[in-house]
Amino acid sequence: MNIVILGAAESGVGAALLAQAKGHAVFVSDRGAILASYREKLVQAGIEFEENQHTLARVLAADEVIKSPGIPEKAPVIQALREQKTPIISEIEFAGRYTKAKCICITGTNGKTTTTLLTYHLLHEAGLKVGLGGNVGRSFAEQVIADEHDYYVLEISSFQLDDTHEFRPWVAVLLNITPDHLDRYNYSLSEYAHAKLRIARKQDSSGYFIYNADDENITRYFQAALRPVMKMPFGLEHRADLHLAGYYKAATQLCVDLLPGYYSKTETISTAQSPLIGEHNRQNVLAAALAARVAGISIAQIEGALATFRNADHRLQAVGEVAGVEYINDSKATNVEAAWYALEGVKTKIVWIAGGTDKGNDYSPLVDLARQKVRALVCLGVDNAKLRAAFEGVVPHVEETQLMADAVARAGALAQPGDVVLLSPCCASFDLFKNYEDRGQQFATAVQELASAKPA
């Protein structure tokens, strides 16, 4: 088969290597420049490629196209392929054809990276042969070349799900659906929700669908009665109207019931040793624990592994303590909802560092939490007028700066012992930083410098 791959980053190069390994003719085309590390992989494999252009005649000659999730449907090259009815698939769809391993696939608007990493950690620590891929870790397709794993835990975005057709996860996890990326879905929440629900569309009675029954958009759009899959709804609290597979009976005690015919009694798992904070992370832990129990991981193994889990950087990440004040890096919180989770999750008084490139934010959902918890707000952005307007009069003290080191120093001066200095920006980072990772790293560095400057 003549396969063309559009996009030469992690997923595209992985797909190219797998396609070559399976005997297909392969051509890779990237409209932009290819990173040196990926170009080197293609050169070493002897795979033909082009960069900074799409040679349309070459692309249209494909029997099948594997598309990078970042390429929108409206791109001219995609429209041309659709017009001649060339099959377009994702790396996930392609890799799924070549493995018999059990795939645990996780999606949701928020929390999918944390849940994916935690689920992988629970399986790995229990000694299972498990790979990590999708939106996090190595390319799923590249791992399938050797196919050394019995399980894969995959973070899957709606963009990746758009071009799946026959891919069938063993366990599908849907954490939540809130408005995001709507420009890719004709500004329709319904279209976006159905893109997320594609994760379960091919599942049959041998599969499991773990979903958040507290999420109104999931319950609105998921036609549960029409699906043959083993449905495992979860929620933060026990419900009389729905048989939940997982819920909390206390703050750090979750209950799991894997349904009649599998496990007939409710089991209790302690989450007291988990380092994750916030209500959203309680949901993430619940989903991961359910997936782990389905995979046969024991309660003792889950409890032990929860204690050793380290989340991805820049997600409510503790980076230091100076003079009795804890510093938490939540630079990944680039929207109002993510910042709400952070403010809600911290249980002490907060000195909040926020600001950046505003994406049309409505800050009103944060006002009550800010009034209750925030001692001071340090605005960090080129233009802080909208942030100041939202919170002046709500929190006792608001000031602004345009340097991370100054923001951390001022926050430290405004904080009292026992407080938390929280970087949870609510905004994109591109006004002052390369990206959210750069912003978070500068925060961590500034905290280290502040610690070294304090007298012992």
UniProtKB/TrEMBL annotation:
Residues 314-426 form the Mur ligase C-terminal domain. Gene3D superfamilies: Mur ligase, C-terminal domain, Mur-like, catalytic domain, NAD(P)-binding Rossmann-like Domain. Pathway: Cell wall biogenesis; peptidoglycan biosynthesis. Keywords: ATP-binding, Cell cycle, Cell division, Cell shape, Cell wall biogenesis/degradation, Cytoplasm, Ligase, Nucleotide-binding, Peptidoglycan synthesis. Its EC number is 6.3.2.9. InterPro entries: Folylpolyglutamate_synth_CS (IPR018109), Mur-like_cat_sf (IPR036565), Mur_ligase_C (IPR004101), Mur_ligase_C_dom_sf (IPR036615), Mur_ligase_cen (IPR013221), MurD (IPR005762). It catalyses: UDP-N-acetyl-alpha-D-muramoyl-L-alanine + D-glutamate + ATP = UDP-N-acetyl-alpha-D-muramoyl-L-alanyl-D-glutamate + ADP + phosphate + H(+). It holds the Pfam family Mur_ligase_C. SUPFAM superfamilies: MurCD N-terminal domain (SSF51984), MurD-like peptide ligases, catalytic domain (SSF53623), MurD-like peptide ligases, peptide-binding domain (SSF53244). It is found in: Cytoplasm. Residues 106-292 form the Mur ligase central domain. Transmembrane segments: none annotated. Belongs to the MurCDEF family. This is UDP-N-acetylmuramoylalanine--D-glutamate ligase. The gene is murD.
